Amino acid sequence: MSKPAQTPDPPYYAVIFTSLRTDLEEGYGATSDRMIELAAQQPGFLGVESARDADGLGITVSYWESEEAIANWRRNAEHRVAQANGLEKWYAEFFTRVAKVERARRFAK
Amino acid sequence: MSKPAQTPDPPYYAVIFTSLRTDLEEGYGATSDRMIELAAQQPGFLGVESARDADGLGITVSYWESEEAIANWRRNAEHRVAQANGLEKWYAEFFTRVAKVERARRFAK
Known about the structure:
40% strand, 4 strands
């Protein structure tokens, strides 16, 4: 997921997911890819963008039409399994922040 | 900047800065470091976290007490010079989104 997300005009919602990885690789890449694929199929999904530094800090921001869409995604069964595995296996620590995007601008050459 | 930001309880504001780099390195690292140092000195600054993928997509999220604090930082003179250089030299494209953080959670082992 190495492109900026293209989102409609605000207002909409962002989930900012900041994480520090453990050293355990097993299952991480496949689950991470699957969660992005699955999120994109949910009602109200607007886009996602993700970057991870070589030293383990990652930031993934997903964009959603509404708080209801975020709540539905949080409760998705397959997502819940991945969340439980995430803290047990792949993440030493993570933060989730839900924010309402009020203004957005794009700058390009 | 390879640590998660430690922020107080919501509400507060986030500026999500998503960028695609050009190949030009000259001056980028020093200016980027200086902007993080300078931001941290501004009134209302709460924290910043940043990650860049090996292929050029970067996400930097800075956290602020208020919209006024964000407006003041946007108008900072040294920051304005860096912004102008940013699009001319270092970024092919970038997005800024201002969002109000309504909920936040931390998970750790």
